[in-house]
Amino acid sequence: MVDKMHAYAGKILRVNLSSEKITIEPITKYTTRFLGGRGINQWILYNEVKPGIWPFDPANRLVFGTGVLVGTPAPGACRYTVDSKNVYTGGVGSANSGGHFGPELKFAGYDHVVIQGRSRKPCYLWIDDDKVEVKNAEHLWGKTTWETDDLIREELKDDDIQLADIGPAGENLVRAACIINNGARAAGRCGLGAVMGSKNLKAIAVRGTGAIEVAEPQRFMKLAEELLEKINNAPRMDFFKPYGTMTVAQHDNDNWSGCPVRNFQDGYWEKSKNMRCEDLVKRFSKRSLGCFSCPISCSHWLSIPAGEFKGVSGEGFDTNTINNFGYKLNINSWPAIIKAHVLCSQYGLDVDNTAGSIAWAMECYQRGILTKEDTDGLELEWGNYKAVLELIKKIAMREGVGNLLAEGSKRASDKIGRGSQKYAMHIKEQDLYETLRYRKGWALGVIVSPRGGGHLRGAPAFEGNVSPGEAEKYYGVRTAADRKAYEGKAKIVTWMENFKAVLDSVGICSLLSWWKSPHLIGPEDVASLLEAATGRHVDVQEIMKIGERIHNVEKAINVRVGMKRKDDSPPDRFFKEPIKSGPGKGDILERDKFEKMLDEYYELRGWDKRTGLPTRSTLEGLGLKEVADELEKYGKIAESAKER
Fold first, then answer.
1. Structure pTM?
2. What is the DSSP letter of 511?
3. SS3 breakdown of the chain: % helix, strand, coil, rounded to 5?
4. What pairs with residue 133 in β-bridges?
5. Mean pLDDT by 10-residue block, N- to C-terminus, for the chain (644 residues)?
6. Nearest in space to 102 (alpha carbons), one of 76, 50, 54, 66
7. Which end of the chain, N or C, is less surrounded by CB atoms within 10 Å?
């Protein structure tokens, strides 16, 4: 039996697919040091997945974790995190998704699900409150995520079941494979759909009828209501609500030349004037959609009424899809982009990694490195959406040239050579989504991200979007208002990494937080919610230290597989090729200033700036002595300045 805990479901579900053994573990031993969600996930992985165990090894774990506040009325408390070995880097693999799967898992009585082993045949996990079983999924193998959802709900006779599943991409171990819930919500990046496929696990289906209890209901509801009012009254929220993050691409393009145009050859897209999000919503949106406990409902159900893609419909997308298939691949057709997004959702493909490998192939085609003989006869010219749609299918099925692109641009370029490595835009071997020349703090946050690039760790979305006064008042760094400044940005990134680790551990959406704007949910708000929910006294200093602890555990995971300072570096293009056009023309990432910024970042982290390795004093100061001891055993820890 597990004692009742406020805010937590109180249980970790463990499933060994090799033996079909199912066990329950109390969560209590993890919560004080790591809160929940991503924090506990990563600590489980650090302790149970040692060096030498690689992503597709049955001994690897795939860990689903809900945040502490998920399932409560706290605004935006809907997120769950999936963590495992990264199929690109071998280090930290982490993905985060919204929708309704996370709350349902918690209502069923589980904060985390730890999957290990490999089933002898395709299976899915059925969680029906206290009843948990591994069910046959041979009839589901080869089906899309949408077909899988329908078939499982029909089989279990419940349309309200929540599912997280993989499509053919995950089954075929495509490195860009992701996990999809609610038809379009992706736990993307890091290839965790392929890890799931390697375990022959098609889906996790959940039905929960329980409830989450908080320690101080009246105080908690008052805090939640105050935050709802705060969010609704925040500046620019009236524009964000109807369009969500779709506005980001056109804002960054129009104001800063901040988009990944034609595989980052430029930052300004001249065709953006024909691709406005207002036009997309007006022409194709049927209704707004939102995640559990979200006051914004920033997504849309899109449907194409006529033309080449008549009848195509599905939940819409954020700025990533627009940047990836519009700006990066030069496609200026909303219907074609909608179709590409729907295909990725159905096949279970991460849009960032998929578009990254296609963009590499297109630039290689542009430069004569790849020809039609290499591309199955496809003309990979910029903007050729028919070729792109065909490539999405080929990648998911590992057919023809798709088998090459399914490995990601880094591995694909290493395989074919011919100078193509120059055009593989990756960090730590994972395809890059973010452009890095126009905001310096953003660039640093993306580059040092432990999961191999990505802005959803420490890259500050507010950079350049706040006034100097706001920057100093809320973030303590006045230069946060100046996107071109290098000074002070390491401090912002370090702070943001710690706070984002907290958000991912309590389950609150970053779009409703200080990550986006200082007028949204901040650290004091999170601490107050946690205290009212759990009954445990916490303050800002404590939760931020927990965030720092989580980030250092992730650092240790990467260090164990050999990552050092050399891995915290962007593609040379950003150092050597300035933005060619638009308002940001001439902007570039200056190597010497970047290296100085990186030095400052390591110093703030308490890591050795020569090697990038953590120090014993830093780890022990965070209560991670066992981590320091293990890294020392491997010879992968640095002496502190005092020790030297």
1. 0.97
2. G
3. 45, 15, 40
4. 126
5. 77 98 97 98 97 96 98 98 98 98 98 98 98 98 98 97 98 98 97 98 98 98 98 90 90 96 98 92 95 92 97 94 97 98 98 98 98 98 98 98 98 98 98 97 98 96 96 96 98 98 98 96 98 97 98 98 97 98 98 98 98 98 98 91 47
6. 66
7. N
In 244-313, which residue ranges form alpha helices assigned H by DSSP? Answer: 246-256, 277-284
Cα–Cα distance between 237 and 561 in angstroms, integer?
Answer: 43
The token pair at 298 is: 């920033």
- Cα separation, 424 vs 360, whole angstroms: 6
Instruction: Name the segment(s) of the chain with CATH classification 3.60.9.10.
Output: 11-207
Which of 505, 489, 500 has its CA nearest to residue 522? 500
Put the strands of the sheet holding 62-66 in their side by side order.
21-26, 11-16, 112-116, 62-66, 80-85, 92-97
* 476 closest CA partner among 468, 465, 464: 468
Phi, psi values for residue 291, rounded to 5°: -80, 170
Q: What token pair was written down for 89? A: 């880097």
When the candidates are 3.40.50.360, 1.10.599.10, 2.40.30.20, 3.30.465.10, the CATH number that belongs to 440-634 is 1.10.599.10
Residue type, position 622, single letter: L
Which CATH topology does 243-426 take? 1.10.569
Q: What is the DSSP string of 419-473?
A: TGGGG--EETTEEP-S--SS-HHHHHHHHH-TTTS-SSSS--TTTTSS-HHHIII
Which option is the CATH number for 11-207: 3.60.9.10, 3.10.450.50, 3.40.50.620, 3.20.170.30? 3.60.9.10
Q: Hey, is 546 helix, strand or coil? A: helix
Nearest by Cα to 26 from 3, 6, 50: 3
Tokens for 411? 């591995």
Apex CA 432: angle with CA 431 and CA 438, to 5°? Answer: 170
